[in-house]
């Protein structure tokens, strides 16, 4: 690729003083966050706190205007080659699935490996079938997304992201658009993924999942990181008043 | 009540009488309306049929059939037009065998139509030619069904596209080549010309329209402004003006030595005109694609071109099939305007025929005949659009 890799040791994502504005609105006010290889970080916080915007800056779906973001030793700048290199190392799962409706499930999964990674079709399809088995829907390969349930669609979206063999997976509220009975099937896949050693950043309101799976919980409010701690400590002894308020709202509703 | 064994079945459908009662005679007012419109329809149809069978002199059409079909194309070279039709018949037959679907309907309709015409006592050569077309359609289908594998099918679409220059080459001829003496494009006319203008217009204006629509959304101001200007200027003037520009004003701008046939100039005018409208249709489709599609594709590491051509355009084009086919149909009918630029397409030939002293006052026959031809092909396009939408599942997935 020709890009320079910085020496970063174990830290796969480094964010230093990241700022972003939408017009005059200051969404991100100086985020500092470091994620280690294999770590599972859950980001929570009230809506509008900038948590989705923040994870979208990591693969540059949103541009940050101040500060540095370094992913696997590559700094995110305006250099298109860097952006492409980083994007192919980061998989992303969206709240609204965003599967390609004009392609079958199999084509959804193989499209990027064939066109971006330049793998031969046969190899891409073989991997796609394995991934579909891994997310528990091997029999749906030749259906179109519109023929699947929400939970199945989100599992296809996870398989699609994994097909690029990413080093990091970003989840932007992956279960928020799902019916309650389908949330579990998606969380099960994510649990299995976390156990396999994948580096994950998950924006979610599923506190049970956070408690069980994550290594660290990061609490966002008003464009800043208010508090971060391992889950046991986070739920038992929140340090900040805002965190306590948020937890009391989300855990008692 | 008897107990029902097995799963419940849906209630039975209505049947003829039930349907009639529900749709036509559900109340006194509806019954009156039904009878009233039936009476009016009968009246109108009886008049039309009586005119068509007893009063009309169809000689004006049958005697001038060659003019209507090919215009002033030299009669001794007419086999070249026939050969073009044979090429199309073969391609149609092969496509029927390979793809089926709406092409099956078209192929069967074309074969049946030509088989029936072959029974009409034309010249023997014409009847043999018609039979040859039928044989090529059916033979092409049979061949396509027998060919092993499906790899050869990828040559079918390029085959269709290549048939266009081949047809032009065949019609235009080569100076100095004995069997293919050049034929001036001024002599091409009738349905042949209408077809050539429409097909070239459709095939060329679609990609141009897509490019204009994409350019209109470009982040580079130069490209965006250029495309917006092209689209808005062309949409701001009537087609007639564009045709006048192409045929009369354009030659003033270029040196006299360079001569471009009027046909090519008019064709370019039609393509540009239609492309501007296609561009706006496509833009509508592009805007209907959710931003999440682009984000998902970008997050997978796809380049801008890949996002556009693999994700956005396929979905956008599927959405605009109805509007696009509507544009194609109006382009087909708008070719009747090229008469004012001095080209003898179908409608203009009709006027020319009526100007002959022998056929004075036969407007009704001529215009009914021309209208029927326009209708057949417009309806065929409309029907193809419906079948295509159904096959691609617009609005379902």
**If helices are DSSP runs of H or I spanning 4 or more residues, what is the number of helices of chain A?**
9
Secondary structure category of chain A:
alpha/beta
Greatest interface (CB-CB under 8 A), with counts per chain: A-B, 27 and 21 residues
Gap between N and C termini of chain A: 50 Å
Query: Average pLDDT value of chain A?
Result: 91
Q: Order of strands across the widest beta sheet of chain A?
A: 6-7-8-3-9-10
Mean pLDDT of chain B: 89
* Topology, number of strands of chain A: 10
The helix tally of chain B amounts to 17
Number of strands of chain B: 1
Low-confidence stretches of chain A: none
Helix share of residues of chain B?
over 70%
How would you summarize this macromolecular structure in one to three sentences?
Chain A has 253 residues and is α/β, with parallel strands linked by helices. Chain A has helices at 51-58, 80-87, 105-115, 121-134, 150-162, 180-195, 207-213, 231-236, 241-252, and strands spanning 11-22, 25-36, 40-44, 66-71, 74-75, 90-93, 168-172, 199-203, 216-221, 224-229.
Task: Based on the model shown, name its key terms.
heterodimer, A: 253 residues, alpha/beta, 6-stranded mixed beta sheet, 4-stranded antiparallel beta sheet, 9 helices, 10 strands, 38% helix, 25% strand, B: 397 residues, mainly alpha, 1% strand, globular
């Amino acid at each position: 690729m020709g890009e320079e890799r910085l020496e970063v040791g174990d830290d796969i994502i480094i964010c230093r003083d990241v700022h972003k504005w939408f017009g005059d609105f200051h969404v991100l006010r100086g985020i500092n966050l470091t994620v280690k290889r294999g770590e599972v970080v859950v980001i929570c916080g009230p809506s509008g706190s900038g948590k989705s915007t923040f994870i979208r800056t990591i693969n540059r779906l949103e541009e940050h205007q101040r500060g540095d973001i370094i992913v696997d030793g590559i700094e995110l700048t305006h250099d298109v080659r860097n952006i492409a290199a980083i994007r192919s190392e980061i998989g992303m799962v969206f709240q609204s699935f965003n599967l390609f409706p004009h392609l079958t499930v199999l084509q959804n999964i193989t499209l990027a490996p064939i066109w971006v990674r330049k793998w031969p079709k046969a190899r891409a399809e073989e991997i796609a079938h394995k991934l579909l088995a891994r997310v528990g829907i091997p029999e749906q390969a030749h259906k179109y997304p519109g023929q699947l349930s929400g939970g199945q669609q989100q599992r296809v979206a996870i398989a699609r992201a994994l097909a690029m063999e990413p080093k990091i997976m970003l989840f932007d509220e992956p279960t928020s658009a799902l019916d309650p009975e389908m949330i579990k099937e998606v969380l099960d896949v994510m649990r299995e993924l976390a156990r396999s050693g994948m580096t994950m950043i998950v924006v979610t309101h599923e506190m049970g999942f956070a408690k069980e799976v994550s290594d660290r919980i990061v609490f966002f409010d008003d464009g800043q990181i208010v508090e971060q701690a391992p889950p046991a400590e986070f739920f038992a002894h929140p340090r900040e008043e805002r965190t306590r308020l948020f937890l009391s709202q989300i855990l008692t509703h | 009540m008897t107990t029902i064994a097995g799963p419940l079945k849906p209630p039975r459908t209505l049947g003829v009488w039930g349907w009639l009662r529900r749709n036509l005679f559900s109340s006194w007012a509806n019954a009156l309306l039904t009878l009233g419109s039936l009476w009016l329809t009968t009246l109108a149809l009886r008049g039309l049929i009586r005119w068509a069978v007893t009063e009309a002199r169809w000689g004006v059409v049958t005697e001038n059939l060659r003019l209507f079909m090919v215009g002033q194309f030299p009669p001794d070279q007419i086999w070249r037009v026939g050969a073009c039709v044979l090429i199309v018949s073969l391609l149609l037959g092969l496509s029927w065998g390979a793809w089926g679907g709406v092409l099956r309907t078209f192929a069967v309709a074309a074969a049946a139509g030509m088989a029936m015409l072959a029974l009409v006592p034309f010249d023997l050569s014409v009847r043999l030619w018609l039979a040859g077309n039928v044989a090529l359609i059916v033979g092409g289908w049979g061949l396509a069904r027998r060919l092993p594998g499906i790899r050869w099918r990828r040559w079918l679409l390029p085959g269709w596209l290549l048939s266009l220059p081949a047809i032009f080459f065949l019609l235009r001829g080569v100076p100095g080549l004995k069997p293919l003496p050049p034929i001036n494009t001024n002599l091409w006319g009738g349905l042949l010309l209408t077809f050539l203008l429409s097909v070239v217009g459709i095939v060329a204006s679609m990609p141009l329209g897509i490019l204009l629509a994409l350019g209109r959304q470009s982040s580079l101001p130069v490209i965006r402004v250029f495309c917006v200007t092209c689209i808005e200027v062309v949409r701001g003037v009537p087609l007639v003006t564009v045709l006048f520009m192409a045929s009369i004003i354009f030659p003033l701008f270029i040196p006299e030595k360079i001569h471009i046939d009027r046909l090519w100039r008019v064709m370019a005018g039609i393509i540009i005109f239609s492309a501007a409208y296609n561009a706006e249709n496509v833009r509508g489709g592009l805007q209907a694609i959710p931003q999440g599609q682009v984000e998902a594709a970008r997050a997978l590491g796809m380049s801008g071109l890949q996002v556009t051509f693999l994700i956005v355009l396929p979905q956008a084009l599927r959405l605009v099939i109805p509007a696009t086919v509507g544009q194609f149909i109006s382009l087909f009918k708008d070719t009747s305007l090229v008469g004012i630029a001095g080209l003898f397409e179908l409608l203009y030939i009709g006027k020319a025929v009526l100007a002959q002293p022998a056929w004075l006052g036969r407007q009704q026959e001529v215009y009914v005949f021309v209208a029927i031809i326009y209708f057949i092909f417009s309806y065929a396009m409309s029907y193809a659009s419906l079948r295509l939408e159904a096959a691609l599942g617009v609005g379902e997935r």
